[in-house]
Amino acid sequence: METHPRPLLSVDDLTIEIGGANVVDGISFTVAPGKVMALVGESGCGKSLTSYAMLGLLPPAARRSGGTIHLGDQELTALSERAFRKARGKDISIIFQEPSASLDPLTTVGAQIAAAYRTHHKVSRAEAYAKARQMLEDVGIPDPDRRLHQYPFELSGGMCQRIMISIALICSPRVLVADEPTTALDVTIQAQILDLMKKLVTERDTAIVIITHDMGVVADIADDVAVMYAGRIAEIAPVHALFEKPRHPYTALLLASVPKLSDAPKADLATIEGRVPTPNEFNAGCRFADRCPLATERCRAEQPPLFDCGGGHRSACWHIDRMAEIHGRAA
Ligand SMILES: Nc1ncnc2c1ncn2[C@@H]1O[C@H](COP(=O)(O)OP(=O)(O)OP(=O)(O)O)[C@@H](O)[C@H]1O
Ligand code: SF4
Ligand SMILES: [Mg+2]
User: Fold this and answer.
1) Is ligand 1 within 6 A of the CB of residue 22?
2) How far apart are CA 15 and CA 268, in angstroms?
3) Looking at the domain covering 9-91+173-330, what would its CATH class be?
4) Does residue 292's CB lie within 6 angstroms of at least one atom of ligand 2?
């Protein structure tokens, strides 16, 4: 069996509360250097909040009510805001889901990228601009000399997304959190950005957490996948194991339209009947129970723990032994 190096990022029992409800409820996973973890799951399941917590950027309405996040031996969740500012960009970076909201409208994009570089490097303005120019080339922006001097409003959404990516990557962070990084981009640019991320992984041993709705992206870049449902991890596994033999009904239904890793097409996740419960509808047991064809009384009453299925594959389901019934339906 492949031995994994020591994790670089460790999320342990992370719980985030909004208005008294645990919208992220006891999430745990690790990412080793040079590995990519994909977080997938329907809208509202807590992917972005989990990623904000890693950067110390939870919105005011949300509060981490339990758990820890470590980067190596450093506990990120214990850092002061001042210490976090030093860590962001260099140790851990984020590509936000909404690029337009994250760029300063009054500053040229070149100045924004150069400033990100100078936060962590004592270099002249000219050197920082040269670095920013190189970064624009790396993310595939044509005519970088002109673009450096433009403002965000002068650029398209896809272009702004690549500026955000440049800011996130310019200091070669040890951990990169990418929240839907390629959703706004066309297919060619998307492939280019994924290649850039793969290069970081192989050349710099960066650990990546990628959030995506696109199972094709998961198949392309991830080593491991955590499937989230209503704030919890339903299933977590190496990517091949998850695609080939999902051990949770939710994952199996999600993947029903993407049967083979080899030809995983672009497939959106929200294809299951019913909807994710809102926090005030959470029951005491499995949060998928209202949509699950295998649900029993026990499912509604008792929360299933993550059972170890071997080979790094874990599933939070009371009825893993009945998965054949789901595979039969999905076939
Ligand atoms: N600032 C906020 N104030 C109140 N509720 C919030 C806030 N941010 C997130 N939530 C709620 O927390 C839950 C998780 O949200 P989150 O944004 O993490 O979901 P997500 O998995 O990233 O969804 P998507 O795929 O749509 O981006 C949702 O129920 C959402 O409505
Ligand atoms: S615990 Fe029960 S309701 Fe939840 S996924 Fe498993 S079978 Fe379905
Ligand atoms: Mg989100």
Assistant:
1) no
2) 27
3) alpha beta
4) yes
